[in-house]
Design goal:
This protein is an alpha+beta fold and 83 residues long. It has a single domain, classed as Alpha-Beta Plaits, CATH 3.30.70. It is built from two helices and seven strands; from the N terminus they run βββαβββαβ. The chain has a four-stranded mixed β-sheet with strand order 1-2-5-4. A hairpin with a 5-residue loop joins strand 4 and strand 5. It is globular. It binds iron/sulfur cluster.
Length: 83
């Protein structure tokens, strides 16, 4: 099930394992360049319509990808809160 947050980004598939961190994307900053989906393909996806979908809940096995996406986002739009 996909929940729409805004017209430009949405939260997609929930992870199967327990979340250890939470992602969010600032829609005012995001320009949908797609760098995050290249760095963290298990967490971010840029659709053919230009919408950025991402997982809010980050399982342990994808935390490194999430950190990489945060570092590489040219707009500093991604926030990762680790528990
Ligand atoms: S890298 Fe940053 S600006 Fe580009 S799509 Fe991802 S969140 Fe948006």
């Amino acid at each position: 099930m996909t929940r729409r947050l805004t017209p430009r980004t949405s939260v997609s598939r929930e992870p199967r394992s327990e979340a250890v961190a939470a992602l969010s994307v600032n829609n005012d900053r995001c320009r949908r360049y797609g760098t995050c989906s290249a760095e963290a393909p298990d967490l971010f996806q840029l659709t053919v319509t230009g919408e950025l979908q991402y997982r809010r809940a980050v399982p342990a096995e994808h935390v490194d990808q999430a950190r990489s996406a945060v570092r590489c986002c040219p707009m500093l739009a991604i926030v990762l809160k680790e528990r």
